[in-house]
Outer membrane lipoprotein carrier protein LolA
Amino acid sequence: MKSKIQESKKNNTETMGKKFLLIAALLFFSFSIQAQDKKAKELLDQVTAKVQSYNTIIIDFKYSLTNAKENINQDSKGNVTMKGNQYVLNFMGVTKIFDGKKTYTIVPEDEEITISKVNEKDDNAITPSKMLTFFNTGYKYNMDILQNVKGRKIQYIKLVPTSSKDQRKEVLLGIDIQTKHIYNLIEIGKKGTKTTLTVNSFKTNQPLSKNQFTFAESKYPNYYINKLD
């Protein structure tokens, strides 16, 4: 009888021991994730602070879109000049100018210009300036791999959209550890589409023309102008 009691106590002790190890492991794992998230948050905050410290930003970039199932493989180049919330974006043959109140979309191929108002307070309004700090809301994130790219240390942060309606499975944000500038952005869609935006040059605090963000209708005498607002 005594041996059965001792055996029962032994089994209970072993069970408690296993449970303790399991709980300890879970707590350690949870702590590691929180610590990792904290490091990711700190790095993202540094990127945001760096971007907001510049008076002007000029970026030349490469954009790639691939989908193996659909046999899609496209490459494009573009550039954007920004000052505050104003910008001039040239991409895929189209120029977009935002003067702080209205957006002017100029399409030379169609000789057409579309003018529309933009509510900058609208969180859903996508602008180039927001693209540099988009990661601050709507994502769960943690540190990913560290890569050496042509002598530059690029730390990747994996961002997973919190909205189930988002068509993106995940986003990988590559950050230059030394400069705290975004090196590239990789979006992986739920249907296999992968888009990559790589920054070829990142210039800051460059002198700009006084009329850099001013739309001059006189430059487009033969264009059809479509005013949405």
Remarks:
- Helices lie at 2-52, 128-131.
- The chain is about 25% helix and 45% strand.
- Residues 14 and 20 are 10 Å apart (CA to CA).
